[in-house]
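Field reference: sequence -> structure
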Amino acid sequence: MKELLLRTLRHEKVERAPWVPFAGVHAGKIMGYTATEMLTDADKAFEALMEVNRLYRPDGQPVIFDLQIEAECLGCGLTWVDNCPPSVCEHPLDGSDEEPPVTPCSCKIPTKESGRIPYVLDVMRRMKEAVGDTTALYGLVCGPFTLASHLRGNNLFTDMYDFEDEVNDLFDFCKRVCMRMADYYLEAGMDVIAVVDPLISQISTSHFEQFMTGLYTEIFAHIRERGGYSSFFVCGDATRNIEAMCKTNPDAVSIDENVNLLAAKRITDRYNIVLGGNIPLTSIMLLGNQQDNMKFAVDLLDSVKDKTNFILSPGCDMPYDTPVENVIGVAQAALETDAVREMVKNYQTAEIDTANVVLPDYEHLKKPLVEVFTLDSAQCAACGYMMNAANGIKAVFGDAMDLVEYKFIYKENVARCVKMGVPNLPSMYINGQLKYRSIIPTRAELEGAVREAIEALKA
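Structure field:
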């Protein structure tokens, strides 16, 4: 029910928490379409989104979930696959980390005719006409930090220390792109503009306050002035930055499973900001069964005593292969909570079996072992950039080190994460020791850590 979600965003008392399934490429899977078809063909995207609306009975619904729309318009090369959104593989501002990023004149603010923007606007207008009276529609734009990372690559994390003025110029450009895209989407009838910036979780609070606070405050004021609602959408362990995010004055903040929802809500409540989240994407939605999903949703709803300022949703874009029955189970829990609570009151989620997980013999390694634990570097921006950092160091050391990625989308890797005690995704271990947790290291930091590991093995 659209009005339920809008009342929530207006901080009014509601009879239940609104339900917003983040079905991006998963919508295509329902209809048998690949992610590429879903993100390039307006007819197929509209058909799939209408089926999401029918099956999952959402109060609010994102139209297109693809954080590479803007990057593609600005000259980033993309790698396309069948089961997740494209990832950026070519960064037009990439280069030496010893030279500052310079935004070339060829990087112009996208127009309504740029790249795939016409496709997105077409789908938005059709969804608005079809379900806009009953469902609040979300337009998703790529936030300025992640967009800057798409343009500059991993060097951006070093640039913030070495080239502050040039980085500020790049962020300002990305802010203007973000605001222009918000304008396009509001004109197409979107009710909520979600500014999705997954890499915010990978920077310190001091860097957020230095580079992002002013930009985001301006972005959310801009959306509000044009009659829209805003949501600050972040992935990964953004715990340290939740309060700083609230100070930029969005209408809502959305978090994933890496953040303790109740602790975050205590912060967002102080600022009278709506909090959305945070059903686990893989361990529950992708790899669990319907009862797991129903029970998790009911328990989450029951844990939030005051439903004011709360939206039930997945932690981020649902994996392509998420079983439809699992999402239907969450929808039923959201819409018929009392009945579902009774149905699952005696159900116990199976414990994760770690007995068959064999860990490396870290005490007797022949060379350093870098292990990167990700949601999936192909579809999670924060995971992708941490994996890029690891791949960059692998290129430096070659066969003198080993590198492996463990993607959380596979049951055996979920069990490995449990046995290792991995606290958050993404995380990077060197020789079995946690080195980087939800923060992307600079090249110099990571190279130093690997050299230290090499020396330790020689001792």
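Note: The chain has a mean pLDDT of 94.
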